Amino acid sequence: MCIIFFKFDPRPVSKNAYRLILAANRDEFYIRPSKAADFWGSNSEILSGLDLECGREGGSWLGISKRGKLAAITNYMEGRVNPDVQGRGFLVSNFLMDKDLDSYSYLKKVSTEGHLYNGFNLITAEFKAKQDTVCYYGNRGSPEPIHLKPGIYGLSNSLLETPWRKLLQGKRHFTSAVSDQSLSCDGLVQELLNVLNNEELNTPDPIQEGQGNGYIQAQTAVCVRTPHYGTRTNTIILIDAEGNVTFTERTMPNCDTSVWSTSSFQFKLQV
């Protein structure tokens, strides 16, 4: 399970406003090996965490490049998954490395291969000097990707904006945080981390319960917590009107849910 909230505003009205505010949780088995966020790729231009699971090495769940490309993925909750298919995390890494396809064209290509993967939702975006673009495709929904209009969105382990109670609750809290014009950058990051770490259960939720047979009650919280599986990474990405990026990751370095490490990166888009 994972969850992503984001506000997309390609033409912010003030210098202190943001073209993108994104807050995301990665939920995974605690023992699954992964690398904390850092720069990688040619000229160290891509910033993301990386999956180190055997056969999935190099895949990612969320990343951004200095050239203004961003991608994020969530799994689609369904009863049966095929362990032998291609890892979904490569859909993120491949987009961040691709120098030819724009975000919509990349998703169009992915949509022709969607049947080769277990269920997923993929967001791709480009933040350029002249135009910002955010697109979405889910291989359990419409056969065509879509361009997203400016606004506030929520995505969990169903299709974009599916009204799971956890998504609605988290989106309300996210909207409140991003609407507070008095917050500094650090203050906004802290408020978004509070949104992501809400462990309140949102039960009952017939819509979530009715999707496949992978449902467990703990997964109705924005922050999932069970003995062996749950939220192990929070990520905040801010892009301001002038292309300055703040990337904050709070992650569990091992299987101890009481020990967390926080890293922050700042850079300017090279576009």
Automatic annotation (TrEMBL):
GO terms for cellular component: Golgi apparatus. InterPro entries: TANGO2. It comes from the Eukaryota. Pfam families: TANGO2. GO terms for biological process: brain morphogenesis; Golgi organization; heart contraction; protein secretion; regulation of lipid metabolic process; skeletal muscle fiber development; skeletal myofibril assembly; swimming behavior. PANTHER family: SER/THR-RICH PROTEIN T10 IN DGCR REGION, TRANSPORT AND GOLGI ORGANIZATION PROTEIN 2 HOMOLOG. This is Transport and Golgi organization protein 2 homolog isoform X2. It comes from Cottoperca gobio (Frogmouth).
